[in-house]
Amino acid sequence: MKTxxxxxxxxxxxxxxxxxxxxxADLQVSGLTCSMCSKATEKxxxxxxxxxxxxxxxxxNLFVVTFKxxxxxxxxxxxxxxxxxxxxxxxxxxxFNFDNLKINNNYHFNYAGNVxxxxxxxxxxxxxxTPVTVIDKGFVPASAxxxxxxxxxxxxxKSGTMDGQKVYHVTI
Length: 172
Hints:
Elements: H1 2-14, E1 16-17, E2 22-30, H2 35-46, E3 51-57, E4 62-67, H3 75-84, E5 88-103, E6 108-111, E7 114-118, E8 124-134, H4 142-149, H5 156-159, E9 161-162, E10 165-171
Parallel strand pairs: 1-6, 7-10
Antiparallel strand pairs: 2-4, 2-5, 3-4, 5-8, 6-7, 8-10, 9-10
């Protein structure tokens, strides 16, 4: 038990609070078959208070979502709105505006009350607007989720939580 507490303390210290801000996201939605489907999804997304604009691209089943400055973004709320409209997310790439964030594989950082866990990344420093792809269940197809699950031993990937806090898994 004492070893567990020590490991937990080290992990808590290693989690950084990032100087980052969501700017926009490219949201690829599967199941859209017509402009009415796209319109229903767009209308659903526009009800989220942290979204300032939604631009659909019908040719690629993609929505470019712009976020309000300094507004906390809730990725699960985006997923729920897409699901409630009758569709599913095939890929969500969120652009963060980073300020000198040093990352490595399995690096964790806090942003807006959530933990973001980098998987399959090299050591680097992130500055400026950088797209990161969310690779959790509900944000990628089941086959991609299984592929990533096989590449990590961290239990937070399957549970989506760590110490009761929501964890999003991302890659570059």
